[in-house]
Sequence to fold (203 residues):
Amino acid sequence: MSQVFNQANLLFLLNGMKLTLIIALISIVLSIFFGTILAILRNFSNGILGKVSTVYIEVFRNTPLLLWILSIRFLVPIPPMYSGILSFTLFTSAVMAEILRGGMNSAAYSQGFSKLQTLKYIILPQSFRSCIPTFLSQSVTVIKDTSFLWVVGIEEFTGKGMIIMGSFKSSYQVFLLFGALAATYFIINFTISCSVRTIKTVY
Fold:
């Protein structure tokens, strides 16, 4: 066991987890921002912008995330970490837009407010409030799905684990490492899931 969880390996894995969380956090924040814009355009614009946002959302929601990870990594000349952030942001923005759009559709207009005022003071605050648990649930998905980035050589948490695994000679060592990776993902995501359940009881 000491050969698997020695100091060098643990630090190596920790660097990978750091990259995983950086990519996930930045992608989630950007996705909420752009998802909000997409949701507003799809719900309140009858012009070309509304149609473009609808097409964007439907295209990304109905195609595999891995396809975008591969396409952006090999077709867009940017550093690996940025390609991971870009692919997750583009994909997850569509998901966040639909989450927020559902919240918007459940919020009501008030009399005497313009459309912009109603959106600013009533619909958006109510929508974000009701969508917080769903946003957190989607965050769990983003963190788990960052493991796909290893396919394109981005050394996040799973990628670091696969590199270490290449030096092992026994299935026991591989089993221990896989167990540690799975346990780490579980602890992080289970903590977020517990937070979601707590927030749902509050709201």
About this structure: Helices lie at 7-44, 48-61, 65-75, 80-106, 115-145, 157-165, 171-202.
